[in-house]
């Protein structure tokens, strides 16, 4: 059984009363959501003039991401398909206006009124056909088309997604481009499996200087940008061919794996964003026979 | 109130409001936000909506944007109608098709049936 919630049930059924409560009361999820929405707001790059904007939160759920928007002083409208999640949001007395709606049916908003949109872990739900009438491609098209219309010109949309595989990411991106958006994917912590987060940064209107894709975050402060057609795809290809190759025998001699091996592994863990002790002269040194 | 004011279905704007219950919530006034949102509002729809909700102090004709800079009384009224009036129970009705979107606990249900997509 997969742990991806998208594969278990449609969103309006998966996020029922118990799941909605569980989701909101979990401090771990709340912390992740807050971190994600803070990063999304940062990527949204709203002009810093203290004027509150009207933002749209797609898949707002119980309003965890909305609270971050409120804290930064903006007004927001939240859209979600799950009634239970919105009820939890009501109980928490979130500041934004809530809407029960399906993003795959298009957003029922007047053109050009929204100053920016964020979406945390929601768009990948569109790729699943939960009813016989659902056609993921049409739903993606309706979503991005209506999003494009309701955004003001030059406004940005930052959508944090968990694509299941490369094809899904390409699909989402291609529909975004077809609706007229400019932009690309920003990947934070690309080497980590858990911390890796993908953000679609889309801008209304033709590409210009302001639509340049910001770079992703890496643990050691370096930045790295990942456009649709760079490194990751190559990695993927290599992985596939690797699978059919006979496993390389690990070189273990009597002395153990050696200092180089330890250093390499430590570097690997550092790239993943784990906390690794610094390399010293004691690294991988053998203990004496007695203490 | 905000959401229903500035919302339209692809085949019709504005949505008419059927009121069953309106609540008022105190919201802090923010002049910058009001000035920003003012240009985006369809004044006639907004005027009608606030009248239906029982707030008739707004002028029928859209005021000149310069009013926003000076007239604090107008800003207060505008703020009240825009942000403090909430439609708690009722429905939004599409002007073209007559389709009703029910509003429960302040949340409009905009889900469409399968045959309406």
UniProtKB/TrEMBL annotation, chain A:
Record keywords, A-Z: Cytoplasm, Methyltransferase, Nucleus, S-adenosyl-L-methionine, Transferase
InterPro entries: Bud23-like (IPR039769), Bud23_C (IPR022238), Methyltransf_11 (IPR013216), SAM-dependent_MTases_sf (IPR029063)
Ranges for region Disordered: 212-291
Localization per Swiss-Prot or TrEMBL: Cytoplasm; Nucleus
MF terms in GO: rRNA (guanine) methyltransferase activity
Domain 18S rRNA (guanine(1575)-N(7))-methyltransferase Bud23 C-terminal: 202-289
Biased composition (Basic residues): 244-257, 264-273
Family matches, as PANTHER family: 18S RRNA (GUANINE-N(7))-METHYLTRANSFERASE-RELATED (PTHR12734:SF0), METHYLTRANSFERASE-RELATED (PTHR12734)
Family of this protein: Belongs to the class I-like SAM-binding methyltransferase superfamily. BUD23/WBSCR22 family.
Annotated protein name in UniProt: Methyltransferase type 11
Source taxonomy: Eukaryota, Viridiplantae, Streptophyta, Embryophyta, Tracheophyta
UniProtKB/TrEMBL annotation, chain B:
Protein name from the UniProt record: Trm112p-like protein
SUPFAM superfamilies: Trm112p-like (SSF158997)
Subunit text: Interacts with TRM9.
Protein family membership: Belongs to the TRM112 family.
Top-level taxon: Eukaryota
A GO biological-process term: tRNA methylation
Gene Ontology MF terms in the entry: protein heterodimerization activity
């Amino acid at each position: 059984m997969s742990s991806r919630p998208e594969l278990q049930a449609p969103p309006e059924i998966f996020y029922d009363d118990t799941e909605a409560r569980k989701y909101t009361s979990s401090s771990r999820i709340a912390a992740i959501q807050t971190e994600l929405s803070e990063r999304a707001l940062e990527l949204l790059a709203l002009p810093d003039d203290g004027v509150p904007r009207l933002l749209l939160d797609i898949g707002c759920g119980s309003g965890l991401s909305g609270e971050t928007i409120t804290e930064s002083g903006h007004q927001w409208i939240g859209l979600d398909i799950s009634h239970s999640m919105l009820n939890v949001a009501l109980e928490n007395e979130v500041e934004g206006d809530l809407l029960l709606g399906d993003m795959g049916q298009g957003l029922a908003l007047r053109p050009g009124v929204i100053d920016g949109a964020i979406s945390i872990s929601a768009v990948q739900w569109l790729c699943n056909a939960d009813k016989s009438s659902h056609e993921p491609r049409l739903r993606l098209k309706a979503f991005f088309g209506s999003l494009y219309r309701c955004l003001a010109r030059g406004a940005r949309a930052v959508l944090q997604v968990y694509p299941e595989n490369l094809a899904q990411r390409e699909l989402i991106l291609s529909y975004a481009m077809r609706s007229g958006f400019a932009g690309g994917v920003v990947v934070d912590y690309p080497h980590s499996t858990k911390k890796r987060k993908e953000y679609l940064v889309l801008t209304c209107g033709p590409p210009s200087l302001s639509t340049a894709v910001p770079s992703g975050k890496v643990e050691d402060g370096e930045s790295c940008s990942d456009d649709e057609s760079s490194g990751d795809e190559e990695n993927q290809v290599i992985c596939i061919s690797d699978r059919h190759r006979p496993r390389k025998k690990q070189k273990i001699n009597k002395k153990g794996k050696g200092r180089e091996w330890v250093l390499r592994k430590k570097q690997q863990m550092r790239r993943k964003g784990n906390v690794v002790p610094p390399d010293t002269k004691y690294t991988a040194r053998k203990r004496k026979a007695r203490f | 109130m905000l959401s229903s004011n500035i919302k339209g279905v692809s085949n019709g704007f504005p949505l008419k409001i059927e009121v069953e219950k309106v609540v008022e919530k105190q919201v802090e006034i923010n002049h910058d936000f009001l000035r920003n949102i003012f240009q985006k509002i369809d004044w006639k729809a907004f005027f009608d909506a606030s009248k239906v909700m029982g707030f008739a102090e707004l002028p029928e004709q859209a005021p000149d944007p310069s009013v926003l800079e000076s007239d604090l009384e107008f800003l207060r009224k505008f703020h009240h109608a825009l942000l403090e009036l909430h439609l708690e129970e009722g429905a939004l009705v599409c002007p073209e098709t007559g389709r009703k979107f029910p509003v429960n606990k302040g949340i409009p249900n905009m889900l469409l049936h399968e045959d309406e997509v």
